[in-house]
Amino acid sequence: MRRARRAAPHAAGVDTGGTFTDFVAVAGGRLVALKVPSTPRAPERAVLEGLARLGAGRGTRVRHGSTVATNALLERKGAKVALVTTEGFEDLLEIGRQDRPDLYALAPRRAAPLVPAARRFGVRERVGPGGAALVPLTAAAARRAAAAVRRSGAEAVAVGLLHSYANPAHERRLARALARLGVPVTLSATLCPEVREYERFATTVTNAYLMPRVSAYLDGLSRGTPARLEIVLSHGGTAPPALAAREPVRQLLSGPAAGLAAAFEVARACGFARALTIDVGGTSTDCAYVAGGLPRRRAREVAGFPVLLPVLDVHTVGAGGGSIARVDQGGLLHVGPESAGADPGPACYGRGGPATVTDALVVLGRIPGEALAGGALALDRAAAARVLEPIARRLGRRAAAAAAEGIIAIADARMEAALRRVSVEQAHDPRGAALVAFGGAGGLHACALAAALGCDAVLFPLHAGVLSALGALAGGSRREKSRSVLLDARATRALERAWRALERAVRAEFAGRPAVAGAQRRGLAVERWAEVSYRGQSHEIAMPGGRALEERFHAEHERRYGYADRARGVEVVTIEVRAGTPPQWDRLDLAPPRVARGVRPARQRVRHAGRWLEAAVWPRAAVPRARPLRGPAIVTDDGATLWIAPGWSARVHRTGALVLRRTP
User: Fold this and answer.
1) Residue 231: left (phi > 0), alpha (psi -120 to 50), or beta?
2) Given its phi and psi angles, is residue 186 left (phi above 0), alpha (psi -120 to 50 degrees) or beta?
3) DSSP state letters, 121-132
4) 470, 264 in Cβ contact below 8 A?
5) What angle do CA 124, 129, 133 make, to 5 degrees?
6) What are the pLDDT digits (tens) for 600-647?
């Protein structure tokens, strides 16, 4: 991958992380990679700096995966929100569901609602599940609600009324009354018109909570660069900034979604139908399981709040290179979830930071050289050793290296638990699958994790350090819409009308997207899906739409749960339309770099399993093609490092990826 440029890029992908902001661009037919330290207090600064260094101009299409929405929710730094809801349902956010966040805690504590009781307002109205207005909403009631919101000093408003998915008229009337306040308003019937009031209200509130901050961020980006921006969404597609600003809840975990899509392409190109993916960055680790396609969910929980929208199924744990190591009063060693972030960062950055996982890797010799991130940061090895020495003493050890081994063991255990969460706990056997390791530090933990899980191979992709940015660059455009219908599965005409209406809405959005070429719009792939259950059941099975839906549901229910009740009515609760253009991997020059011949590896002392070994250190372009590279060895790449442990060997795949297998 070349770092110099001669022409302005025509396309770029950006991934904002807690420590680094990654860029991948296509300029003059070549891929250009760049890492810039993140600026958490004003994240747009790092993005604009990187785009300026790349020379992005009016002709550049930029696809951007952002952590702004996720961080605002995690840090509880959103707007003051008011909720307007059906009278008698003001406390639904507080009541929630019966599930406990910690099953065995004697006094469990749930996340406090984003809207306190003083800013929750009920209006007299009622719509039935069939859409009939049982109690009309009067103009006077709408005006009173708007006046109450004004007095509360709210900066954003969420409107969630009972059964508005069946008839949104009352929510729209409230929106007209609230428009005079000059604050952003989110309607649940527009954002997620689905059953289950708690999840729908909570999603609507979260969107309103994020709108001011995300809107300001995207506005700053749009004003700061002439490039054409597209924002990566949680389901892997993109949206223009104006739409993304209206629905910021769709951006939660958007960066990991782009990385997962790229890792899936790597596994498929290397011949693996099943794979676990692990993206280890500076702040967190993102994991997923793929088998034949990208894993999708229509609801998930983020920071303790339900989000009733389609997402790629990525599990995140607070264990990354910047995770802080400490010893508690009882003498127990802890790692994370707190992170040193980009400022001050780990101690080895030379800025007075705390002891972290990265410092442990430096002390163990697994990060060679004198700089990190392709030369973006100088490496202070002495500082890393100094901050680990007090930890070693508190643990009763003499050397910093012993503390470092303990830190890495704990970090590996947390990552392994996350990988088991998306595989074993979901009835997926990791044995025989590949482990795709990427991010700046994914390759440093991969061999230990693959051995613990019984994976057949480790895949270390080309451009592993910026793979999420590459996934953002190459990903296709995508939109997904859903709506609850509560129809009998045999009501084929009514279902057909509902699906067609959703399809028209999705196609209309693509027709208004100048960033999507006409040829791509004509080749738009449209899928119909349905959430189906036996009448009266609490949970549904997601199935492709089409003929014989009822019988296919009976067969799938029997396959999953061991029985089918063919005498019982089958209900289609929610329908969904997914539409997208194909990824653009074939348009990128992803050919492996030319072999750097005549390069002799450096030597590095590395600590492994309690003893010091000597490992060869190879630049990625110099890794031998004709024979396997046996561990212990280290492979350095721009922005990423691979540790090949003893008992493992690596071969270069025709795609340029390194394929690691255990040595016979």
Assistant:
1) beta
2) beta
3) EEES-EE-TTS-
4) no
5) 45
6) 889 999 999 999 999 999 999 889 888 899 989 999 988 899 999 999
